[in-house]
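Reopening this ticket.

The earlier resolution said the output was attached, but the attachment link was broken on my side. Pasting everything inline this time so it's all in one place.
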Amino acid sequence: MATVRVIIDEKVIKEAIAMAETGETPPGGIHIYSDAKMEGLRLVVQKGRASWIVKYRDWSKTVGYAWPTKRRHVSAISAARELCKVVKDLLDHDPEQLEPFLASKFAGPKKTNKEALDEMRPVVHTWTLRKCFEYMIEARTKPTARKKIGKLYIDELNRTLRRPELSKFVDQPAALLKRGDLEKIRDEVEKASGVSSSLKALSNIKGVMTYCCTQRSGDSGLDQAFMWWQHVTSDSVVKARDRKPSVIDIAKTIRLATEYLDKPLPGRQDGKHGLRDNVYSAFCWLTMTCQRVEAALSLRRRDFYPDPNEPGWYLAAWGEGVMKAGKAHVLPVPPRAVEFMMPLLKAARHSNSDWAFPSERCTDQKEIHVNRSAPLAVVRRLGARDVLSKSKGREESAVDLLAENGILFWSPHDIRRSLTDCMDDAGIPGGASAILAHEITLSQGLGEDAMTAEQKAEWHEQRVAKITKMAYGNPLHLALKKKAMLAWTDAVLDELERIMPAQEDYLEAAE
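Inline output:
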């Protein structure tokens, strides 16, 4: 190996390239030109290549090539010396940033060292965007959290994390997320799922980043001096919905749904039943109670029980962490609605699950209820608005059963507007708000503390007593709820009985 210390110039570079071009091992083995003008810069000739190498302290790094010219080509000595300065500076401060810098410099069109530094994606060891989401959920659900978040918001955050539009970004450091990245996520979510989903995703990301920036700036790498994400907005707005299914349309949809508990929907090639018992049961429960989908499906079996003060009536209860308003809610259910729902709840029952509407994927190790999208899918499938396909060798395709039966498309959330009209027609001002838990304060929690096996029976009795006390704690609200629930469920069930056979008949058919 021969080492020559010279002031590398164009003549030396040509000499080195000539040796490399031969493809032969240089005389004496590896030939090294050590630059006398830039300490640490070397032009090293080996068989078939002439490499620019920076020898600095304990490092020996290849930073470019005089030959061949296809990869990281540096042709001039001036460029090699400038590159050497930057490399040594990076090695002084953070050696892990060297490769990202070189990748940036030699990727695409020719750029200066400063441009390469500005455009590089540095190696960082701060939290990924996923870790930021996980930290905020963990921190704001601790018993000592100043402002706790509930199950609905946690589910919304996790749905945002799972969105395919975030897949390229969630496992990158949050500190590397750029304004253009967030704008791209916003636009792609809007294109795929609409304005509402886009605004929710944008809000959730911004909220998480702001929380981690203000609480754990060092770990997250987010700097409070310039919280750029707060300035990313959307020019789109959610168009107000005015869909309002009539009681007749609601009853007709339930009737249609019962027909496909034991047979496939027309034009479907999978041969499966159109609806499953647990989803149908959940769908009917939504029509009876008009609650928000996630809250309605989060009902525990133990929290739906006979009202000890009113024969035939039942009480359904939800804790503060379930309801959107963050307040406990108790809803009286009239005898007729109870009679309608009981066989459906029995059909939906799964193993030892305590959910009133357990998912088919529910196990003893993983208790989950029917997904919030399932009730909407009931109407979408009946209206042929889900993913459609034709059976092979057949012309028959999915049929819009809603249109065939003169039913305008609607969603479970739209029932809440129908409820308001029903209450107005029945002359019950405030009835809808009472049922929907609007402006109703029930601050006393349900008390789900840790308990031993021996305490369970006593605890259950105390829980029932506590819920009942909550329900009767405000006689005015309870009387209003009962009056409103009776008017609404009677309206739906009257129409349902008019257009379909007795419930026992179609449940037997479903079996």
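Reporter confirms the inline version is readable. Strands lie at 2-6, 31-35, 41-46, 49-56, 59-67, 304-306, 314-318, 329-333. The first strand starts at residue 2 and ends at 6.
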